[in-house]
Design a protein that fits this description.
Radius of gyration: 22 Å
Number of domains: 1
Shape: elongated
Number of strands: 0
């Protein structure tokens, strides 16, 4: 029995362990991207207009330089959680008065749909900004135009 376990351990592909470690490292970097965007966008949103949420996306998309879909999705997720969470907090804190009136004004029906739309709009702004930052990093800077 002991010989079977030792043989199994020696035959286990080392590249598989390396792949798992590399995959874990990539996911941590992507979560760091989302956390950095979320925290800096929250701080900028305290003092600057709403469109300032694009600034962290541009900067961190350039710095972290992930591929297109990963950049967009992590930037989207960060601001979807931030703005959706803030809208839900406001919705719950004032007994849905504000979101109900906005839902009436926009004729969407449910105040929770207003919260969802708010999160999606913030996510789109940040996702597109993060995608733009990563694509700017990928463009060759030594291209000569003639």
């Amino acid at each position: 029995m002991h010989q079977i376990i030792v043989h199994y351990r020696n035959s286990f592909p080392k590249y598989l362990l390396h792949s798992v470690h590399q995959l874990t490292q990539i996911n941590v970097e992507r979560m760091l991207l989302a956390a950095a965007i979320l925290i800096s966008a929250f701080l900028l949103n305290l003092f600057l207009p709403w469109w300032s949420i694009a600034i962290p996306g541009l900067i961190f998309g350039y710095v972290f330089n992930k591929k297109g879909m990963a950049s967009f999705s992590w930037g989207f997720l960060a601001l979807f959680l931030l703005w959706g969470g803030q809208a839900l907090y406001i919705h719950l804190a004032n007994d849905a008065i504000l979101s109900s009136r906005i839902a009436e004004m926009l004729q969407v029906g449910s105040p929770y749909l207003v919260v969802l739309i708010t999160g999606v709009i913030g996510g789109l702004v940040s996702g597109l900004a993060t995608l733009t930052g990563s694509l700017v990093k990928e463009t060759p800077s030594s291209r000569k135009f003639s």
